Amino acid sequence: MEILKNSLIILTTSIGLVFIVVTAVGLIRLPDVYSRTHAASKSATLGVMFILLGVFLHFWLIKDEVNTRLLLGIAFLFMTGPVGGHVIGRAAYLSGVPMWKHSVKDDLGPYLKEQKKAHRQSID
Amino acid sequence: MAFQVLLNFFIAFLWMFLSMNFTLSTFLIGFILGIIMILMMNRFIPGRFYMGRVWALVKLFFLFLKELFLANFQVLSLIIRPKMPIKPAIFALPTVLEKEWEITLLSNLITLTPGTLVVAISEDSKTLFIHALDYGDAEEAIDSIRNSFERAILEVSRT
């Protein structure tokens, strides 16, 4: 039984660790801000969630203490991780960071130009 | 929905007072009895039976978890390849959702799905601009996922 508990804890913590490493490697290897945000917003969220889950299981199964703060931490990460990714991508685009040169399509640029034109006409 | 939840709590407390036993298990028994009563009286209470909506919410949560896992394995398989075979793109996706919390939920779901990231939402909130990591092969699959997400969210918000 003890072995089962320990292996569960080790499994969750190491899955989290693997995804954190994936985040780091992705941040180095991917070409531009937008693709890096993919790695940072998804893998980092899941990695930290798994490590927190491992800590929660450790305290629950070995130390016999249910730490609800860790569960709240998991829930908050789950909600705020994607929002952070979105905000970084949006801020980068609006401040004019170019996409990678092999990008195949960009619908947002023409739309923003149109918005700007409409705005200027409404002022005149 | 809020009215039905409140009614259910009221029935549970009524059950506790009837049985003169103020414990959690009595409360839960009263709550379950309340669910059955509300289901039987559903025609006279305004709105849809609220447990159906709770069930739709649970299904949406598991959809969320599944997509998060698939997204991470996709990123994993991308970054360990020696040549990175990606074709990034930003494409527009029109949405039928109207309320603000629905659009927030949809963009969160899209951001956590494999290879997509919401970059901007148009001024009239009818279009989402999505950055896709690998545009070429996955466009139709992505569209079908969108449909399933949109349908799941509509299932929750339907009155």
UniProtKB/TrEMBL annotation, chain A:
Pfam families: PhaG_MnhG_YufB (PF03334). It is a multi-pass membrane protein. It is found in: Membrane. Keywords: Antiport, Membrane, Transmembrane, Transmembrane helix, Transport. The keyword Ubl conjugation does not apply. Its main location: membrane. GO terms for cellular component: membrane. InterPro entries: PhaG_MnhG_YufB. GO terms for molecular function: sodium:proton antiporter activity. The chain crosses the membrane at residues 7-28, 40-61, 70-93. The keyword Translocase does not apply. Belongs to the CPA3 antiporters (TC 2.A.63) subunit G family. NCBIfam families: CPA3_mnhG_phaG (TIGR01300), PRK12674.1-2 (NF009314). This is Na+/H+ antiporter subunit G. It comes from Paenisporosarcina cavernae. The lineage of its organism: Bacteria, Bacillati, Bacillota, Bacilli, Bacillales.
UniProtKB/TrEMBL annotation, chain B:
One of its GO terms (molecular function) is monoatomic cation transmembrane transporter activity. Keywords: Antiport, Cell membrane, Membrane, Transmembrane, Transmembrane helix, Transport. It comes from the Bacteria. It is found in: Cell membrane. The chain crosses the membrane at residues 6-39, 60-80. It is a multi-pass membrane protein. Its main location: membrane. Belongs to the CPA3 antiporters (TC 2.A.63) subunit E family. This is Na+/H+ antiporter subunit E. It comes from Paenisporosarcina cavernae.
